């Protein structure tokens, strides 16, 4: 429920000058205070200030190494702060020591700025040598301003109803108009390509993506989500749901009194079942993509109607608790990731399409209330959380299962002419080998019976769905055809990208439109086991 009240008190709304920020005997100087802090959370930190902040922090500590991991659409270098007992920021230097590597990113949506500010505060704490115990176990890879172009598009109305920063915030999309948290499979933005390349080069074991909510009024300061795709290895799902996230929730409740829970919203509309529903399972989203790379992916969502300062602090505490767990379990994390990368999915059933599952029993979800105020400069309505938590019993839709499955093959075979597909697989880090000679193989070919397009655009695409069936076939493959083995560390991801019925694969994103027609055949072939691959003889 929302309570409407009058304009915010003027005392709360005074815009302070940049020079009157917090002071402390342990301060590293005014340069290591964020714009948010210096303005009492009226403003958010701009790109140039982020870079200056990181440069000064790096200059203050031998354990901090500043580099970049790519450029934005508008040409802004993407800063990456490497923190740990490593000689420099080169990937080879970062990977060499036996440390757990944790990637922390903020600002994937330019208007969701609390993660950016929280990560800058973390950098300052580490520059002051807080948490010295982490240096023996962790290397942190901190990317505080991923959507740097979007961050710079400051406007009052970019996030309607959100409680601050009152002087405006950036826009959701990048300079191409793309949502970067929908671009992890198709990789249409330079930012996403740079990010995925960094994931390959630095190979983080843990990936944390910091957001701010939209939607339902609830009683949580922060919500979170593990990887949601049903093809995520169950050991990752179990680690997060059974250990990490409950531990973080308990720790922050004890230290700060804040409630945390799994991300969700309550759908609206007459006749709609009251339920707590998470978001999408598909790997276009960062945490889901991380899971299909066999990595511990975590999303957080600070509550939009909490004050800007509260959102920053909630995000900061979430990070701190996660890093404390990673420090305590560093050997176990590395062992888990190594074992998952060695495990083959060939011959196992994997989901091509997923659907949300209703929980077997109801649970109590903390719904909340807000008061409606006027924006101090525009007089537009904004909302501030009230300290209200209303336990409401409902079902949850917080997990996904397969609505369709296929047995993972041994190998996919891609015609040499499909250069864009091959380049995209390489960009993801999926391994492949070109045939050196013509080969005849016994395998399977997918016969297309129907092809449809979505009614509405998503990311400037009309998503495609094809219907059909795999059937036995013998085919001749010319030299140059590229074999993609599924028995590789990224086998789960390769399967999801290449299966024709995948709900987030290359077909879905129109990348094979020129090759698809009803009554025809899918151009990518597969063989189910290695013995079958040698049914023919080289020609």
TrEMBL record:
PROSITE patterns: PEPTIDASE_M14, PROKAR_LIPOPROTEIN. GO terms for cellular component: extracellular space. Gene3D superfamilies: Zn peptidases (3.40.630.10). Residues 43-322 form the Peptidase M14 domain. Its cofactor is Zn(2+). GO terms for molecular function: metallocarboxypeptidase activity; zinc ion binding. GO terms for biological process: proteolysis. Coiled coil: none annotated. SMART domains: Zn_pept. It holds the Pfam family Peptidase_M14. Belongs to the peptidase M14 family. This is Peptidase M14 domain-containing protein. It comes from marine metagenome.
